[in-house]
C-alpha cells in the first residue's frame, strides 16, 4: 500500500513537470509609473511647432509708417566741415547725404594783346608799350596764352573798358576776356521725424556762413 502511494505521487510530479514544459509562460508587463500617476511631458513636446509662416516679422516702412521732414544745409566751402556736421547729425536723424557741386562765377575781365608769332616779337611789342608810357604789363612766357601780353585783370567791367580806351588812344588794339572761376561746394541733406525735430541742432550756430532750410523730400 505504501509503495502504491509513492508510485502515484511520482506519477503526479512527472505529469506536472510535463505540463509546465508544454504550457507557454505568461509574459509580465512593466509599467513606468503606477496606476493613477500622470505621465511626465516635456515642455518642448507640449508646445505646438511654429513655422516661419505662423510667426509674423515686424517691419518698418519709412515712407508709409514714418512722416519724414527733409532739410538741406550749406554751402560748406571746406569738405572737412561738411563731414564734421554729418557726424554731429547722424545720431539724431534718420539719414544723411553729402552732395558736391561745382560753382562757376565770373572772376573778372582780362585786358591783353593777343599772342604774337614768337617770343622775340612779344618782347618787341613790350618795348613799344614801354616807349608809349604804358605801365603794368608783362609778357606771358608759358601756358595757353604764351607770347601774349597781359595788360591787367579787373573785377569791374568799367575799369576794364577804361583801360582799353587808354590803350586805344595810344594806338594799341587790345582784347577783353571774361575770366571764369570754378570751385566746389558741399551740401548736407538729411531727413528727420517730427519727434526728432525737437532735438535737432541749428548748424548755423557753428557754421555761420551756411543756411539750413526745409526742402521737399525725394522719393527713394
The share of residues in helices is 25-40%
Alpha-beta classification: alpha+beta
Low-confidence stretches: 48-63
Tell me the major beta sheet.
Answer: 6 strands, antiparallel
| Order of secondary-structure elements | HHHEHEHEEHEHE
| Strand order within the widest beta sheet | 3-4-2-5-1-6
Roughly what fraction of the amino acids lie in strands?
Answer: 25-35%
Radius of gyration: 52 Å
Task: Summarize the topology.
Layout: H1 2-22, H2 43-46, H3 62-65, E1 69-76, H4 79-89, E2 95-113, H5 119-131, E3 138-139, E4 149-154, H6 157-169, E5 175-192, H7 194-197, E6 211-215
Antiparallel strand pairs: 1-5, 1-6, 2-4, 2-5, 3-4
How does this model look, in words?
- Helix content is 32%, strand content 26%.
- It has 220 residues and is of the alpha+beta class.
- The chain has a six-stranded antiparallel beta sheet with strand order 3-4-2-5-1-6.
- It starts with a helix and ends in a 5-residue tail after the last strand.
Amino acid at each position: 500500500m505504501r509503495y502504491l502511494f509513492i508510485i502515484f505521487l511520482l506519477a503526479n510530479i512527472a505529469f506536472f513537470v510535463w505540463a509546465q514544459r508544454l504550457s507557454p509562460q505568461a509574459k509580465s508587463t512593466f509599467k513606468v509609473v503606477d496606476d493613477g500617476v500622470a505621465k511626465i511631458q516635456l515642455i518642448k513636446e507640449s508646445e505646438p511647432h511654429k513655422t516661419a509662416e505662423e510667426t509674423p516679422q515686424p517691419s518698418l516702412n519709412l515712407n508709409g509708417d514714418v512722416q519724414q521732414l527733409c532739410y538741406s544745409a550749406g554751402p560748406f566751402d571746406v569738405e572737412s566741415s561738411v563731414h564734421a556736421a554729418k557726424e554731429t547729425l547722424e545720431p539724431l536723424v534718420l539719414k544723411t547725404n553729402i552732395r558736391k557741386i561745382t560753382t562757376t562765377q565770373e572772376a573778372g575781365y582780362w585786358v591783353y594783346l593777343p599772342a604774337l608769332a614768337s617770343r622775340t616779337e612779344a618782347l618787341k611789342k613790350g618795348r613799344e608799350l614801354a616807349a608809349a608810357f604804358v605801365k603794368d604789363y608783362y609778357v606771358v612766357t608759358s601756358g595757353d596764352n604764351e607770347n601774349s601780353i597781359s595788360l591787367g585783370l579787373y573785377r569791374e567791367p568799367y575799369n576794364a573798358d577804361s583801360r582799353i580806351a587808354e590803350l586805344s588812344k595810344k594806338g594799341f588794339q587790345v582784347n577783353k576776356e571774361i575770366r571764369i572761376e570754378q570751385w566746389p561746394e558741399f551740401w548736407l541733406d538729411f531727413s528727420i521725424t517730427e519727434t526728432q525735430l525737437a532735438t535737432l541742432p541749428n548748424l548755423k550756430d557753428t557754421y555761420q556762413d551756411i543756411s539750413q532750410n526745409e526742402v521737399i523730400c525725394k522719393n527713394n
